[in-house]
Specification:
This protein is an alpha/beta fold. The chain has 2 domains: 218 residues, Quinone Oxidoreductase, Chain A, domain 1, CATH 3.90.180.10; 128 residues, NAD(P)-binding Rossmann-like Domain (Rossmann fold). The protein has 12 helices and 19 strands. Strand 13, helix 7 and strand 14 form a beta-alpha-beta unit. The longest helix has 13 residues. Keywords: Metal-binding, Oxidoreductase, Zinc.
Length: 366
């Protein structure tokens, strides 16, 4: 099969013919239709997140079930499915505690080594050299993944519309529902209106947020944010963003500020934009050396709450998100601004790196 292979830091993705193994008893093989281009993949390509090479990136996958392992139930060949980028092992202490979004085996095996949970990749070069997998390695014509990350797409929903649900939308849902517990009427700010930021804006509207303020440095992204449901926008390259947010909220600040990029600058905007007793939720994945400052006296006096959020709980939350899509309450396709074929995957990530992608770019594999 054809795959876009990450061979070395800052080297172009290379189209190769590679091989895939049959699924293990608790795994599923998916014929990939489309895969989102996510910023965390870009971090890996640039060496900002350590990961072994050669590897196949891509973790926002929509496609059709090809094979199922003998222990898999509820899925059959031909089913139209979408994947979650978090692949819960279902056995570790965190999964048992209901915190599968921080599954210990997911981080120990997949994020650290590019392996599935028997310590092996399912991808290889023709000579047998392993090709490591970032989540399920979706920038390929076929992928193998644990069944815990695979969910049926409702009838009437296009596969190309829902690829990003498994990462950017699921990440946003986890931040809104589980980290911040946003309620009807809450005021929120979304700092950085990229892929995850766009999903935060869409879902904040679904959650009934009273005011949704989008902050970015690009007017095109701010215009897109307004179309997705932002009630106000702030261009942080032209104005003091925290001051502008306070002005928009009558001098008080927002109840929740979501940092959706993973940088010191965006964290500081979020930190300085919340009301007394408000929440700062860090959602963006930052390079490991990134540091943000907090004044301990200010935290105590203002009773600020700073939280991290890695994603939603796949087995609980993916069915909820797909139901919202089926009922037309959530339209992830509205955040997709560009489509690329597999042989142009490199250009998709270059455009993402240049800041040219509004919302999400999708790579059409099939």
């Amino acid at each position: 099969m054809r795959a876009a292979v990450h061979t070395a830091v800052n080297e172009p993705l290379r189209l190769e013919d590679i091989e895939h193994a049959a699924p293990a008893e608790d795994e599923v093989t998916i014929d990939v239709a489309s895969c989102g281009a996510c910023h965390s993949d870009l971090h890996v390509r640039k060496g900002e997140l350590p990961f072994p090479t050669p590897a196949v990136l891509g973790h926002e996958v929509a496609g059709t079930v090809g094979e199922v392992g003998r222990a898999v139930s509820g899925l059959s060949p031909g089913d139209r499915v979408v994947t979650s980028f978090i692949m819960p092992c279902g056995r570790c202490a965190r999964c048992a505690a209901g915190e599968e979004e921080i599954c210990l085996d997911f981080f120990a095996y997949n994020r650290a080594k590019g392996q599935l949970y028997d310590g092996r990749s399912r991808l290889s070069r023709p000579g047998g050299e392993p090709v490591w997998m970032y989540s399920m390695g979706g920038l390929a014509q076929r992928t193998v993944t644990p069944a815990t990350s695979v969910y049926r797409v409702p009838d009437g929903v296009e596969l190309s519309d829902v690829a990003a649900v498994g990462c950017s939308t699921m990440t946003a849902y986890g931040a809104l529902r589980h980290a911040a517990d946003v309620r009807v009427g809450d005021t929120v700010a979304v700092i950085a209106a990229g892929g995850v930021g766009s999903a935060l804006i869409q879902l904040a509207r679904v959650f009934g947020a009273g005011e949704i303020i989008a902050v970015d440095i690009g007017e095109d992204k701010l215009e897109a944010a307004r179309q997705l449901g932002a009630t106000s926008t702030v261009n942080s390259s032209e104005t003091d963003a925290p001051a502008a947010i306070r002005e928009l909220t009558g001098g008080r600040g927002v109840d929740v500020a979501f940092e959706a990029l993973g940088s010191r600058a965006t964290f500081e905007v979020a930190r300085d934009s919340v009301v007394e007793g408000g929440q700062v939720v860090v959602v963006g994945i930052a390079p490991p050396e990134t540091v943000g400052e907090l004044n301990l006296a200010t935290i105590a006096r203002r009773k600020l709450r700073v939280k991290g959020s890695y994603g939603a709980k796949p087995r609980r939350d993916m069915p909820v998100l797909l139901d919202l899509v089926a009922r037309g309450l959530l339209r992830p396709q509205d955040a997709v601004s560009r489509h690329y074929p597999l042989d142009e995957a490199e250009e998709a990530f270059n455009a993402l790196d240049r800041g040219e992608i509004r919302g999400r770019a999708v790579i059409d594999v099939a």
